[in-house]
Every structure is written in C-alpha cells, then in structure tokens.
Amino acid sequence: MPGSQSPDFKPFVERRWTSPDGLHLFARDYAAGSGVARTPIIAIHGLTRNSADFEAIAPLMAQSGRRVLAVDVRGRGLSDRAPDSMTYTPDVYARDVLALMDQAGVARAVFVGTSMGGLITMALTAMRPKAVVGAVLNDIGPEVAPEGLARIAAYSGQPVQIDTWADAADYARRINGVAFPHYGDADWAAFAQRVFRQGPDGRIGLDYDPDIAVPIRAAGAKALVPDLWPMFRRLARKRPTLLVRGATSDLLSADIAARMRKAAPAMAYVEVPGVGHAPMLDEPEARAAIFAFLAEVD
User: Fold this and answer.
1) pLDDT tens for residues 155-196?
2) Distance between CA atoms of 168 and 214, rounded to whole angstroms?
3) How far apart are CA 17 and CA 293, in angstroms?
4) Average pLDDT, rounded, for the chain
5) What's the mean pLDDT in 248-265?
6) Spatial CB neighbours of 122, under 8 Å, sequence gap ≥ 6
7) Among 97, 106, 15, 110, which Cα is nearest to 64's?
8) What is the pLDDT of residue 1?
9) Which of 74, 179, 188, 245 is the most buried (most CB within 10 A)?
10) CA triple 71-44-232, angle to 5 deg
11) pLDDT band at residue 150 under the 50/70/90 scheme
C-alpha cells in the first residue's frame, strides 16, 4: 500500500558508545520532530529491563521536538555484558550515561528514569549537576519499600527455562501480573518480546546478564533500604521534577511518596490507577502528566 512502512521500520537510529572501562553500549536514538528544538531526553529503564520499555512513549516525546536517547544499561539488551559483575551498580551506570552524553554531544538533558533509572538520575545529579535539566522519576524514590525490592531481588538473575514464546509470555505474566492485572494475552505476548531475546541458536532467554544481581546479593540487607534523600532533595528542590507512582506499587509506597512531596513541595505528581511497579508510561494518566511536565521544561 502507498505510504505503508516496512515491518522492519524502526523510528530510531541504533547508536553505540563506549563506556569509561571499554564496554560497547547501545541506545535507541529518536530524532526530534520538526519545530523549535528543545532540550533532549535521556530515558533509563529499570533493573532487568531495556530500552524497549520506552518504545511507546519515546516516539511521542521525540515528535514534541526533543531528541530522545533510550539506553540499554550495561548488561542489558544490546549493550555488552560486563566482565566484572561488581560494576553493575548505579554509580557505574551513571558514569556510562555521562560518557554517552559526551560522545553524543548532549551537554544537558531531561531524564526519564524508571525504577533503577531514577536512582541513576539521582546519582547523575550529584556527579554532574549541570547535566540534569529536569527529571521524571517513575515509581522510585530516595527510599524504597523493602518488600518490593525483596520481591525484585528474588527473581533477578535466577535461571528460567523458556522453550517457546508462549512460555516467555507466561513467565512475564507470573513475574509482572500483580503490577498489570488488566493485561490480556496480547499484552503479555508483547511484553515478552521486550524482555526476552531469541539467540542465533533459536533459544529464547531473558535479555540481561544474570550477574546484574551479584552486587545486590553481595550488599545484603544494606541494598534494600538505600538512603538517597540528600540526592533527591538536590534534584527535586532545584530542578523541575515529576514523580509518577503506580497506585498499587510495592516499591514506592504511598508513605514514601508523601514524604517526597513534603520534601519537595514544587514537585509535580501523578498516580496511575490500577497499576503497580512500575507504570509503563503509556497509561493515559502517566502520558498526560509527562507531556504537561515537558511543556513547562525548556
């Protein structure tokens, strides 16, 4: 049909960059739409996920006039796996993102960080304050509910036997069903395509290095309740910030969110009904809040 797109069409360019310790890392680079150019966006996913998490909202943000770089953090997606598993930590991830900014010619950006991506954003604020223009924190704060992180730690890095894409969809449902009770079979099939990959040998596996969980296990209980309040205040009191919370989230409790709002009264806030950890940001409430927020940020 005239005007139809190839099934292989991608709305982004595949970008590679090199980490300070020599890893080859990957990002989806969405070109800004027409109109006045605005500050770029860097989108950072959660612990066991990758840049595909932003495939619905990234093109829309790009159409608003902002270049969008959605990264695969080291050990995930198309980025190299690290030979030293103890480099799977937020401070190292933050340095990797700074290397991307330097190599891509991005001096300042608005950050959209889901879960771990929000922790990386807070670390970036401490490392290079002028690089962070504003931030969307998706279901994450300077403190997390231990039960939520314990749940995530329980499955992260654990082996799983997947023989078919139907198995992959079933696994995705088992792990994430509590967060998205409204999802149907087609949603879980799409979800599986984002978090699994089929290798050259035909085998289907989770699209991350299982060793990303090594530093979490090594830290033990200390990893479950990080104190990042000073970093959060530095971010949210001095820069435009939007907090997105899943209404049934077990990681960002209502109490923690309330304390964040008290510590940063100017911070924008939206709660996504019927969703747990973490909203996909394609929900109408999340999407509307994000674009209202971005409209007010240079």
Assistant:
1) 888 889 999 999 999 999 999 999 999 999 999 999 999 999
2) 24
3) 29
4) 94
5) 97
6) 142, 228, 231, 232, 235
7) 110
8) 41
9) 245
10) 150
11) confident
Q: How far is CA 11 from the centre of its chain?
A: 19
Mean pLDDT score, 233-240: 96
Q: Are 119 and 143 in contact (CB under 8 A)?
A: no
- Condensed to tens digits (0 to 9), the pLDDT of residues 67-77 reads 999 999 999 99
Residue type, 71: V
The pLDDT value recorded for residue 5 is: 56
Take residue 295 and report the two structure tokens written for it.
């409209």
Residue 267: predicted pLDDT: 98
Please state the rounded mean pLDDT for residues 270-278. Answer: 98
Q: How many CB atoms lie within 10 A of CB 51?
A: 24
Give the residue carrying structure tokens 């924008």: 268
The residue with greater pLDDT, 2 or 219, is 219
